[in-house]
Design a protein that fits this description.
The chain is of the alpha/beta class. It has helices at about 1-25, 50-65, 90-95, 105, 125-135, 135-145, 190-195, 210-215, 225-230, 255-260, 265-300, 310-320, 320-325, 330, 335-344, and strands at about 40-45, 70-75, 100, 150-165, 180-185, 200-205, 220-225, 240-255, 305. Strands 1, 2, 3, 4, 5, 6, 7, 8 and 9 form a nine-stranded mixed beta sheet that branches. Bound molecules: (2S)-2-hydroxybutanedioic acid (LMR).
């Protein structure tokens, strides 16, 4: 009997604690001291903290808490701690996490049109990406369609341009890709890019790339310098080519119902924090990538870092041009044309 009473006390204790957690998460209740509880806003992402996105999330957390007068507690979960690439958008749709910043390539799993950022050599520089996002024909269209799936796009964050690496031999010309396995994000255009170069694309979440490289499940990968350095990919590869062949950026996404239901003051505070963070990423992402290159160089683990010559680049451009035609129907001729016009 005594044991039964102890068990009941434990059960009630656990239930009481669980109840407190739920109250604090919806922000409606007060805690035991009668103070208004903070609303928890969870931000999930997959990269390390010493990257453009990782640093931006920490900055957003600080600014958001300041501009909402401490009404909001932003909790950032880096390194796929909470959700990996394949899970996070569903988690936002279910409001299990309120903010995420997946690479645009990953948004293309829900909306094929978002894959336009993956086209090889589509953008000369970050300014061209910004121009695309600010245009009605591209940015307006892409952000508009998110609402069909209970999502809301709040901002675009830059990372930068991707580089190639391989463990087998240097990558100078398209024929060097022949038969090699390269990890890609979940994007049909990225798969087509490697097919066009003669390689074998292997879609895989970011969290699995290091061990797949280490164990030889894949031979190579493409990513930005900050992602390569912070996840130590350069330690399990021999050759890197500075190719700047594709862009990697993020859509900062929230749950539409959650965002529209926010107290207007809180929403304004979060928007202010987001705008300042977006500007910071725009101004600093390229610098962070350059610093990562310096550190990769200083580590000296790679056998060669090769910068694509203009002639070699021309060959890559020619080999991958076919990808634009392949996706005319799926992505839409208007979007492909808008992207091609940016190249002029
Ligand atoms: C990747 O999967 O390679 C990137 O999307 C990771 C990231 O979020 O930068």
């Amino acid at each position: 009997m005594k044991r039964f009473a102890v068990l009941l006390i434990i059960i009630f204790g656990v239930l009481a604690l669980a109840g407190c957690g739920a109250r604090s998460e919806d922000g409606a209740g007060k805690n035991d001291a009668g103070q208004k509880e903070k609303m928890v806003v969870k931000f999930s992402h997959v990269v390390a903290e010493n990257t453009p996105k990782g640093t931006a999330c920490i900055m957003f957390e600080e600014l958001a808490e300041k501009y909402t007068d401490g009404k909001v507690d932003v909790q950032v979960f880096p390194n796929s701690q909470l959700y990996n690439d394949d899970e996070v958008l569903a988690a936002v749709q279910q409001n299990n996490v309120q903010l995420a910043a997946p690479a645009t390539s990953k948004v293309s799993k829900l909306f094929t049109e978002w894959t336009i950022f993956d086209f090889p050599f589509a953008f000369m520089d970050e300014a061209a990406v910004q121009a695309a996002m600010e245009s009605e024909a591209i940015g307006g269209k892409l952000f508009g369609m998110l609402k069909e799936q209970q999502l809301l796009g709040l901002a675009m964050w830059d990372n930068g341009f991707k580089q190639m690496s391989l463990d087998v031999h240097p990558l100078y010309l398209p024929e060097d890709f022949q038969g090699q396995k390269f990890r890609v994000m979940s994007s049909k255009v990225l798969e087509a890019q490697f097919d066009a170069l003669g390689g074998n694309p292997v879609p895989m979440p970011f969290s699995e790339v290091y061990s797949a490289l280490e164990q030889g499940v894949i031979d190579g990968q493409e990513n930005t310098l900050s992602n390569i350095y912070s996840k130590k990919f350069h330690e399990v590869q021999k050759y890197m080519t500075i190719s700047n062949h594709g862009y990697l950026g993020y859509a900062v996404i929230t749950n539409a119902e959650f965002w529209e239901g926010l107290d207007p003051d809180v929403r304004a505070g979060l928007e202010k924090a987001l705008n300042e963070t977006t500007q910071w990423v725009r101004d600093n992402a390229a610098r962070l990538n350059q610093e990562s290159l310096d550190k990769i160089n200083a580590d000296g683990t790679l056998e060669e870092i090769h910068e694509l010559t203009p002639e070699q680049k021309e060959k890559w451009v020619e080999a991958t041009d076919i990808v634009y035609d392949q996706f005319k129907d799926e992505v839409g001729e208007d979007l492909i044309k808008a992207i091609k016009d940016l190249r002029k």
